[in-house]
């Protein structure tokens, strides 16, 4: 739910299997996404970056994740005004 699908695809590729995207399939997500879940998503992305990125890419990925969530927070705040 919070980056596990991305981690699973990465593990599949690392074991020399193929990940196939079926664009003809679709699903309906009956869940909400709010600020409470945003923190869980951020934590999942940070965990993924620490697990899979090397020493050079890791700090860049962590910086990108942090900046992304800060920009989202600023946008939300400015919309409320």
Structure description:
The N and C termini lie far apart (31 Å). The model has no long low-confidence stretch (mean pLDDT 89). This protein is an all-alpha fold and 81 residues long. The chain has one domain. Helix 2 (35-52) packs antiparallel against helix 3. The chain is built from three helices and no strands. The longest helix is centred in the C-terminal third of the chain and has 24 residues, at 57-80. 1% of the residues are buried. The protein is flat.
Write out key terms for the chains shown.
mainly alpha; single chain
Query: What's the end-to-end separation, in Å?
Result: 31 Å
Strand-residue proportion: under 5%
Low-confidence stretches: none
| Beta-strand segment tally | 0
What's the tally of helices?
A: 3
Order of helices and strands: HHH
- As a percent range, the share of helical residues equals 55-70%
What's this, in brief?
This protein has 81 residues and is mostly helical. It is built from three helices and no strands. 65% of the residues lie in helices and 0% in strands.
């Amino acid at each position: 739910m919070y980056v596990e699908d991305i981690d699973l695809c990465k593990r599949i590729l690392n074991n020399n299997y193929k990940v196939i995207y079926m664009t003809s399939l679709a699903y309906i997500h009956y869940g909400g996404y709010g600020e409470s879940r945003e923190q869980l998503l951020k934590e999942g992305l940070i965990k993924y970056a620490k697990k899979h990125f090397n020493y050079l890419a890791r700090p860049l990925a962590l910086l990108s994740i942090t900046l992304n969530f800060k920009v989202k927070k600023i946008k939300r705040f400015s919309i409320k005004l």
